[in-house]
Amino acid sequence: MNETPRPLPPRLLDVTTFVLARLGRIGRAEMGRVFAGHGLAHWHFAVLTALDDAAHTSQRELGARLKIDPSDLVDVLGVLEDAGLVVRERDPADRRRHVVALTPAGRTRLDQLSQEAAQADGALLTPLTEPERRAFEDQLRRLLAHHDPAAPFTPAADTPASPG
Amino acid sequence: MNETPRPLPPRLLDVTTFVLARLGRIGRAEMGRVFAGHGLAHWHFAVLTALDDAAHTSQRELGARLKIDPSDLVDVLGVLEDAGLVVRERDPADRRRHVVALTPAGRTRLDQLSQEAAQADGALLTPLTEPERRAFEDQLRRLLAHHDPAAPFTPAADTPASPG
DNA sequence: CATATATCAGTCTGACTGACATGT
DNA sequence: CACATGTCAGTCTGACTGATATAT
């Protein structure tokens, strides 16, 4: 019973980046468990969301949007294809390309995964009040938009408009 | 010039855990660059903070506090020892143990690293106003405390006390 | 002999690199 | 032939697993 968790060093907890990164890892791990319940992993979900957003996409385009290496994308798509969630066909217009698209089963699965992901988000943010949560998520998205040009900031619908 | 970064899929950005994890990775990478400027990495900094908090510690105790595997700790301490930042000696009271402690040079280096880490934090949180930043950091620490028992929440000194 | 500590060697994963076959 | 696309094989890292030498 002497397995009391030792506290982390204060000067480490002083570093916000450290706190953020550690919380990110916790959330990512939990999300991984959600996807694993469907025999999938993070990248599979990411690919499904990308295909939902842009119906027919080449693998190269998918890789560019998600910043997944094309070589790694091969296996990810293989799993999704074997599971019947996507189809991968030669582009008749340019036979170098593979055109990837969601199947109906893929769309259904994406909806399930999105719902479970939202529940996991809720569990992660459980200590926050509703207004706190809204502010926190808003700030998070602003920060990501500032540091990652691929993440445009779209203010929440019920957020008071900024001046302009 | 067609290298315009493609936006991430909206349904992916809807997942707060994803946004959080991605921002965590960005911050962690930047922090890694800071430490690399001193020939060190994340774990080296973490070990220094732990030794600052608890002056003389066995490797086992260090591993337990930082949740770094004892086997991985070996090399981390080796680097710090070679750099003259820590000393590692047999515990005369129990010769199985190594007692690790900061050297004066280690303390100086820790102070440098802490300062640079604070600057990196500032850069990461640059889009936030001062009150936003305080609230954001407070919420982040509450969330981590909720999900990681090793991270006790100590409210900031100038934070209004919660009801109770 | 059972346990604790530190160490070493090997594994597993995610992300990246380089080579290459196919097609434009 | 130069270039684009997708694929495969290998590397590098961080975190974990198992075995071992030393000491209690």
From TrEMBL, chains A, B:
This is Winged helix-turn-helix transcriptional regulator. PANTHER family: TRANSCRIPTIONAL REGULATOR, MARR FAMILY (PTHR33164), TRANSCRIPTIONAL REGULATORY PROTEIN (PTHR33164:SF104). GO terms for biological process: response to stress. It comes from the Bacteria. It holds the Pfam family MarR_2. Residues 16-145 form the HTH marR-type domain. GO terms for molecular function: DNA-binding transcription factor activity.
